[in-house]
Amino acid sequence: MSLLKAAGAETGSLPRQRELYNCLTCDRKYSYKTTLSRHLKFECGKAPRFQCSLCNYRSAQKNNVLRHIRSYHGALHPSPTVLDLTYTNFGIV
Ligand SMILES: [Zn+2]
Ligand SMILES: [Zn+2]
């Protein structure tokens, strides 16, 4: 016997999530208002302060660099680290 019911089978009939919010500064598009506001707060117009220690990949968000390291470099050793350029000679005031 099965207690599980197939819920959400009608998901396919929903309209596709559209990118409703776009940044007026850099024209990026986001599906959620919270994502856009996070972009405005942490990314837009900001110098990318975090950099991968193995390559020149940079992002304003540390999580993006961590994700890049995992997906792009995989399980390398020694472990790549995220460099915080704020404390380097990057010229951020
Ligand atoms: Zn922007
Ligand atoms: Zn990298």
Automatic annotation (TrEMBL):
Q: Please name the Gene3D superfamilies in this protein's record.
A: Classic Zinc Finger
Annotated ranges, domain C2H2-type = 21-48, 50-78
Q: Which Pfam families match?
A: zf-C2H2, zf-H2C2_5
User: Which keywords describe this protein according to UniProt?
Assistant: Metal-binding, Zinc, Zinc-finger
InterPro entries reported for this sequence: Znf_C2H2_sf, Znf_C2H2_type
Q: Which domain of life is it from?
A: Eukaryota
One MF term in the entry's GO annotations:
zinc ion binding
The name on file for this protein is C2H2-type domain-containing protein
